[in-house]
Amino acid sequence: MLNEIYQSLDPIAFSVGPFSVRWYGIAYVLGFICAALVLMSTAKRWRVRVDSDALITIMLCVIVGVIVGGRLGYVLFYGDGYYLQHPADIFALS
Hints:
Helix content is about 65%, strand content about 10%. The chain is mainly alpha-helical and about 90 residues long. It has 2 domains: about 1-50; about 50-94. It has a two-stranded antiparallel sheet with strand order 1-2.
C-alpha cells in the first residue's frame, strides 16, 4: 500500500515559471532549520555561548559539507566508473 503511494508521488512540490522545487529540497531545508534549532537549544542547555554569527558560520559549513559529501558519495558509490571517464561531470548541477 505504501509503495503505491510512494510511486505515485510527484517529485516536484511546486513550480514557479522555469523554477521547480522538489520535495527532497524542502526536506533538506527543513533538516537544516531543525539542526540549527537543536544546536541553539543544546548550546543554551549546556550554557555555551553561540551567537548568531557563530550559528550562521556553523550552518554554512554544515550545508556545504552535506552538499559536497552527498555528491562525492554519489560519484563514488553509484558512478560505476562513468565519472572516471567524464570527470567534468562531477561538478554538473543537473
